[in-house]
Amino acid sequence: MSTNILGIETSCDETAAAVVRDGREVVSNVIYTQIPTHTLYGGVVPEIASREHVLKINQVIKKALEDAELTWDDIDAIAVTYGPGLVGPLLIGVSTAKALAYAKNIPLVGVNHIEGHISANYLGAAGTDPIAPKYMCLVASGGHSHIVRVDDYTEYTIIGRTHDDAAGEAFDKVARAIGLGYPGGPKVDKLAREGNPNAIEFPRASVGDSPYDFSFSGIKSAVLNYLNGAEMKGIEVNKADVAASFQMAVIDVLADHTIQAALDYNMKTVALAGGVAANSLLRETMKERAEAKGLRFHCPELIYCTDNGAMIAAAGYHEYKAGRRADLYLNAIPNLKIGER
Q1: What is this structure's pTM?
Q2: Strand ranges (DSSP E) for the chain?
């Protein structure tokens, strides 16, 4: 008997809902992005994001069911992101999921957003080349940079983390500094293809005696200092070279720390997750360096790297199968940690 999970995601600026069958088969996946709205402000405005979620969430959920050609009677559980993320947007998704669970008498499952990103590795084409725990996963996004040992489908151990900026946050800030605007990650990735990654020597930060941890505030400052210095001296800056050199410095650290962690913990597989996992050079570099060390490399399809409901449904499926249920007191937890229940 198949299990259909409706996943709802509203942690930031995507209103998303999806139906996933048995934790792997994506039956529908609907995403309404607010990027055009927030581009006007150079970043996500939480209050505006919340209002957009209120306007769109019912339509998105309805479309997810229609695309799946299912009714509420076919849904076994509703999975919803309850953290981490922006508290206003999170509350829209959580409140909607609770109301639907109560009205339709369907079990409710709370999902950690980061664990959802990790579970994106089980979706889509991944089903034809399945990945299963145990493996080492790099989660890199605008708000998070973690190396996570995936011990089981619902069991995670943090091996490394950023001490300051997340990788995606650094991309956004550097993009703004060189005049690319928001969202920064995809624009830096595109411009970097035209530049020389060895043109400028930006630092590769390490964190004392924490070989798997990250620090990206230093490289962000180094880029700003380089730009300010060039401006003061009247030197023309090659933005493509800046983008390429910055990107390579960040990716060197992300890839090397993750692969070293996999080797040290005797993992045979390395995976990627999160919005930064859509970066073309990161995907290429991780694959090349992992395979050079005899490791299997895996990453989600691009559509499942950025925020989506399918990854929440996939994570929710395993929580549901583990017997975990949320009650109607479920609340948004904006600083929720990996592995917290």
Answers
A1: 0.94
A2: 4-9, 14-21, 25-33, 77-83, 108-112, 135-140, 145-152, 155-161, 269-273, 296-298
